[in-house]
Design brief:
single chain; N-utilizing Substance Protein B Homolog, Chain A; 2 domains; disordered C terminus
Amino acid sequence: MLNRRLLRVKVMQVLYAHYQHNATTIQNSEKELFHSISKSLDLYHLYILLLLEVRDYAISRIEFGRSKKMASDEEKNPNTRFVTNKVIAKLADCEGVRNYMDKSGNNWVNYKEVVKNLYNEIISSQQYKDYLANEESSFEVDKKFIVKLFEKVIAYFEPIYPTFEEQSIYWNDEVEFVLSMVVKTVKGMSEDKPVELMGEFKDDDDEDFVKRLFRKTAVNHNDYMELIKKHSKNWDVDRVAFMDIVLMQIAIGELVEFPNIPIKVSMNEYIEIAKHYSTEKSGVFINGILDKIIVELKESKEIKKSGKGLIDGAK
């Protein structure tokens, strides 16, 4: 499932586009939001399928080597540890993975060169060499290797990014989030239980969160803009990065709409997102403006926090 930060980023991306195209209705933008979320889940599955595709390519190389008339001893008796990795085999047999392939196909079929180059990158990596040399053989050893493969090799494989950009304009920005989902899935695997793939949302609360956050911000766009202008007297708002404006509006929506989310949590989330998606000084600017807005909204009782640790104005 997508974590809350990535859900906030999704709302930010869609609202940014929504404000740029005034003719787009809130309903249509909301559909785009949920489509974007489903696309992130596609990326999650594609990473899993990429691992399976590399395994299949490795098998083809072994078979090719064995078929040579003048095959070397190494080609006749190859190390098959990678292609028989128990974690990869379990992912290949996973019903959810097979269902995804039946429904969406395998996008790597058209990117054989990417698969080949990644295979070469893997077999030249220290992680791969250490794995083949490890005398211990178990599901846990196989699992630790696959985790390292995603974290240390696949995550840094640059040629994959143009491929992602062709399929979704947002994917390259989401790689870090989605890779963490894949790694979490692998870490959670056990030899005697079915693979538990992630869905779009952890639960109904997360789905409700993203829907309400988008609607609250979109509907109150003008009111939130006035608040921002009011507390930005020393700034020329027209020259402020538009992404900062969007992020502050979403932050206000979250602060007002979700009494169970601490103010400090919301503030930290949007400041961190600003550091990644906006300008170098955005975090400081957003923090300063939101601090003033929070004071006003608490005085007018528009921000009301409830629950343990959130009452009496606690952040």
